[in-house]
Design brief:
The protein has 1023 residues and is mainly alpha-helical. The protein is 60% helix and 5% strand. It is built from 47 helices and 10 strands. The strands form 2 sheets. Strands 1, 2, 3, 4 and 5 form a 5-stranded mixed beta sheet that branches. Strands 6, 7, 8, 9 and 10 form a 5-stranded mixed beta sheet that branches. The termini are far apart. Residues 1-22 have low confidence and may be disordered.
Length: 1023
């Protein structure tokens, strides 16, 4: 052994490098050695050269080059050579190294991967023979149990419970040595695997079986120590990773002890004996001795923890769990498995507690408690360790395990297929049952396997219990090489680990905090399982008007064994309750069935509803609250994806929609196709706005602005189509053309049922024949209207030009000069009032500005509207109230024309604009609310009066929108009337964001608000 580079070995020649030359260093470097001088000196070690002397052709360096740490492997081989020198074991070791193959590879892998197991081989070189076992990972647990019992002289198949005949410290050492020998064989098979991630479950299962066998052997030794052991039946229940057959190389072994008196024995005395046996068992596993201890036996998961009795009867356990157990204790019991002792007693214990485990989800706040517990575990990680934790930290093993266990506990009460105590098997079952997406489950499984492999390799090095990533370059390099990661450098392994942490944390947050979980947990077992009779009673109780019909929909959605049906069986128990939160749960369920029939075979629809944090609840709210929005989603099913992200529900700006329209017009070659695509944009944005408004994500003003922006863009696009057709015609384009928005479109106050009120203006190009230009302008206007009103798959947009001079009797289009002449000679006050909403919306921008300049003196006359104009406006308003209100409608309930309704507020504001707009710039706006604010700021309306008018206008606008959203009907006799029906009022109240059963409150609020508004109108408008 060298004292340093170029030094003298303990048994070797001086300066071995001088004889070997630089080629040895090159070979060592190629093989991955780090300390080349020390390695070269070790190769000259006398004991090693003597051991290897007959093996002149041995490619030793190449074999060492594939192990985790070649330097440590060579040093361990040298130590082993010293241990066997002059003994018959030397031939055994030499034979193991003689032939390239599995035994040699396993020996070198152990020496290079675990200094602790290298120490074991140096102490017990005869255990090299254990490396010849090719099937160590497939050995049945009964074989392993028999092997360790035999080590202490206990008969695994004899009458009664096994009792050790090799007792005392000799028995303890024999058990530990037998454990280490098989542990070494498991580690060897693990370390030589080229696919350690694939092998990991088998390794973890072998380690759990070995731990169970060791506990069995320790219990046999404890029985030998206590002659009265026959008075008690004792079962050792494995918990945690031992119970799940997914144990680490070095870990506390979590157990719970169950005891019952043997026939004819007193219970209290038997429990005392059981406690002594349990104490002795733990001492055998972790007490001092000539051989290293195995691991601590931790019984802290027992009832009352360390403060409770070490052993209990089955009845005592059951009593505790029924009365006192906390949520986390049921989660821990999920992995309970008998690993040693009386198997029948262990089975009685697990049979008794299993129903409680799967009913635990029905405890109050079960899911929230589980989620809080995970956060506490994370918060308790020391800050210095947080960024190195493989197990407890962010993106660590606990994220995976808590996620899987919570999903099991929530869904497992009605699905026995997902009850496995093994994490990977449970994850596979959750995926197969549709509880976790296939891709998500596959990613999570790979991440979990990698984290476990890293954990195993770190623990194997010194057989120490640790879950921290190393920090030194040499340790990281060893970790990468032993884990078979490529590339194998320190930075590469850290980057791979960080990527896994990110993936695990993202999946954990997506799955662990699903809103479906706490909602599912609140259901009874029968409700969660969709049992028909239980569902019938539940549906009737929560407000379904046709439970039988609802059951038919449920059956249609869930029948069969397809993955689609399985996911529906998860979703529907919760969705049924969420539908009942809306105004019409029956309609919501029917709409959901139709949507599911349309989208159920897509790869994303059900996955989105299951995995999204908000989509399922939002969809239930929309479908059960708004027929209009439900119909809009059914016409564009892909729009369901909007529900997953607030950004998708945000209104699209006019600029963004204009860019989309540009793309449509650039690509489309057919005018009708282009117009349909433009109308599709409007239909889509109307749906987006409706969904957002139902979900209370948009104010009425924001909704109106979004609807207006879509119509503006569609009008502009249709005009471009019509102009293009004429531009490419025989005469070319003869005139500039403009579209002026009027009414609610001009004020950017569109509702879902509003037409597009416009006027058309044109200006012949220089040199163009005016009559031909006029004819062409009329043709353009008619073509625009036809494109947007043609029968087709997309909703029509009625373009109404009735507000033009002379109404329907006047020309459809006028020149700018004709407008000027008409307004100068014939304009009536109502036309000046209508022009208050005039806003150029499409066409020639300069022409639009000139039109505004033309009409500004009419709508904002210098000195204000004269007395005659004011009298005429008031007369028209009174006439409208008397004649236009539908027969039989209560004026107090008409949202538009009734007392204190939209018309009252708008006419009042418009009169103020006509009187003071010339002098008050803030009044020169097409927006009702903006003009009202300007009037208030100018002192034309008292602040209290302005607030009353604003409240009434906003409430009426919201109610008009809500009527369309609730009924799904646009227009009609009831479209502007507050209903009397209690159910309809309740539905409107929900759409306005009010609590359930608020219909009467909404009615009272509206009548009070409109009454106050009317009083202000009487005082301001009719003053």
């Amino acid at each position: 052994m060298s004292s340093g580079p170029g030094g003298t070995g303990a048994r070797g020649e001086a300066n071995p490098d001088a004889r070997r030359g630089p080629s040895v260093r090159a070979l060592l470097a190629r093989a991955g050695f780090l300390d080349l001088g020390r390695a070269a000196a070790t190769l000259e070690d006398r004991d090693l050269t003597e051991l290897l002397a007959p093996l002149t052709d041995l490619p030793l360096l190449d074999a060492l080059g594939v192990v985790a740490a070649p330097d440590e492997a060579l040093l361990g081989l040298s130590r082993l050579a010293t241990a066997v020198r002059g003994t018959p074991r030397a031939d055994d070791v030499r034979a193991a190294l003689a032939v390239p193959g599995p035994v040699r590879d396993r020996l070198l892998a152990v020496l290079g991967g675990s200094s602790a197991l290298a120490d074991h081989l140096v102490r017990h070189p005869e255990d090299v023979a254990a490396l010849a076992d090719d099937g160590v990972l497939g050995t049945e647990d009964v074989v392993v149990r028999a092997e360790l019992l035999a080590a202490v002289g206990a008969d695994p198949d004899g009458p009664g419970e096994p009792v050790a005949t090799v007792a005392g410290q000799a028995g303890v050492d024999a058990l530990r040595r037998a454990y280490r020998r098989r542990l070494m064989a498991v580690a060897a098979a693990d370390l030589v695997s080229s696919e350690p991630l694939s092998l990991m479950p088998g390794v973890a299962a072998a380690l759990a079986d070995l731990a169970g066998a060791a506990l069995e052997g320790a219990l046999a030794l404890a029985r030998a120590e206590h002659p009265d052991h026959a008075s008690v039946r004792l079962a050792v229940i494995g918990m945690g990773k031992c119970g799940g057959r997914e144990l680490n190389y070095v870990s506390d072994v979590d157990v719970v002890y169950v005891a019952e008196p043997a026939d004819g024995h007193d219970e209290s005395a038997a429990l005392a004996v059981g406690a002594r046996l349990a104490t002795a068992l733990a001492r055998v596993c972790s007490g001092p001795g000539a051989e290293p201890a195995l691991w601590p036996v931790d019984a802290a998961l027992r009832p009352e923890g360390k403060n409770g009795p070490l052993v209990r009867t089955v009845a005592s356990h059951v009593a505790y769990y029924e009365r006192w157990a906390k949520t986390w204790e049921f989660q821990a019991l999920l992995k309970a498995r008998t690993v040693a002792g009386d198997r029948d007693l262990g089975r009685a214990y697990t049979d008794a507690i299993r129903p409680m485990v799967w009913a635990a989800v029905e405890r109050e706040n079960f899911v929230e408690d589980s989620q809080a517990m995970r956060r506490r575990v994370e918060d308790n990680v020391p800050a210095a360790e947080a960024d190195r934790q493989l197990k407890l930290g962010v993106g660590g093993l606990r994220d995976v395990e808590f996620t899987v266990q919570l999903l099991q506990l929530v869904h497992g009460r009605s699905d026995e297929s997902i009850r496995s105590p093994n994490t990977l098997r449970a994850l596979a079952a959750l995926s197969a049952g549709g509880y976790v997406g296939r891709e998500d489950a596959a990613r999570l499984a790979v991440c979990y396997r990698l984290l476990r492999v890293l954990e195993h390799r770190i623990q194997l090095h010194r057989l120490r219990r640790t879950h921290l990533m190393p920090t030194s370059e040499a340790e990281l390099r060893r970790l990468a090489r032993s884990s078979r990661l490529e590339p194998a450098g320190p930075e590469a392994v850290l980057e791979r680990w960080r990527a896994v942490r990110r993936d695990v944390r993202n999946l954990h947050e997506e799955l662990f905090y699903r809103p479906l979980l706490p909602a599912t947990a609140t259901l009874t077992r029968e409700e969660a399982s969709l049992a028909p009779e239980a569902q019938r009673a539940r549906l009737a109780a929560i407000g379904y008007r046709d439970p039988a019909g609802a059951l038919r929909h449920i059956a249609a959605l869930t029948e069969g064994v397809s993955r689609r049906a399985a996911i529906q069986r998860q979703l529907l128990p919760v969705l049924l309750g969420w539908f009942a939160e809306g105004s019409d749960p029956d309609a919501g369920l029917l709409a959901f069935r139709r949507l599911s029939d349309e989208l159920g075979t897509t790869h994303w629809y059900l996955k989105l509803l299951r995995d999204s944090g908000v989509a399922a609840h939002r969809l239930a709210c929309v479908l059960s609250t708004s027929r209009f929005a439900a119909e809009a989603l059914s016409r564009s099913p892909e729009s369901v994806t909007w529900l997953d992200a607030d950004a998708e529900l945000a209104p699209r700006s006019r600029e963004r929609l204009g860019t989309e329209a540009d793309a449509v017009l650039t690509r489309a070659e057919d005018a009708q196709v282009a117009a349909m695509l433009l109308r599709a944009i409007r239909r889509r944005e109307t749906a987006r706005t409706a969904v957002a408004q139902v979900l209370q994500e948009r104010t009425p003003q924001e909704a109106a602005a979004a609807l207006t922006a879509a119509v503006d863009v569609v009008l502009g696009g249709a005009l471009r189509i019509a102009e293009h057709e004429h531009r490419t015609g025989p005469d070319g384009l003869l005139t500039r053309f403009g579209v002026v928005a009027m009414g609610r479109l001009g004020g950017a106050e569109l509702g879902y049922g509003s037409d597009a009120d416009v006027m058309f203006v044109h200006d012949p190009l220089p040199g163009a024949d005016e009559s031909l230009a006029q004819a062409q302008a009329v043709s353009i206007a008619m073509r625009l209207r036809a494109l947007l009103a043609a029968v087709g798959p997309e909703p029509v947009l009625e373009v109404d030009a009735d507000l033009r001079p002379e109404g329907r009797n006047g020309p459809l289009v006028r020149t700018l000069a004709s407008y000027g002449e008409y307004y100068q000679r014939w304009s009536a006050p109502w036309e000046s009032q209508a022009l208050l909403r005039a806003r150029p919306v499409a066409g020639d921008a300069d022409l639009g500005e000139r039109f505004v300049a033309l009409v500004d003196p009419l709508r904002y006359p210098a000195g204000g509207a004269d007395a005659a104009a004011v009298r005429e406006v008031r007369r028209l308003k009174a006439r409208m109230e008397a004649e236009r209100l539908p027969r039989g409608v209560d004026p107090a309930r008409h949202l538009k024309l009734g007392r204190g309704g939209l018309s009252d507020v708008e006419w009042t504001v418009q009169l103020l604009q006509m009187l003071h707009g010339h002098d008050v710039p803030a009044l020169r706006t097409t927006s009702t609310l903006d003009a009202l604010a300007g009037a208030q700021d100018a002192g034309l309306v008292a602040a209290d009066d302005a607030a009353v008018l604003r409240d009434s206008w906003v409430l009426c606008s919201r109610l008009r929108d809500a009527l369309v959203l609730w009924t799904g009907r646009v227009g009609g006799s009831g479209g502007d009337v507050l209903p009397h029906d209690r159910r309809a009022l309740g539905a409107l109240a929900r759409l306005l964001g009010m609590p359930p059963a608020s219909g009467a409150e909404l009615e009272e609020t509206y009548l009070r608000t409109s009454r106050r508004a009317r009083a202000v109108v009487e005082r301001v408008f009719y003053a």
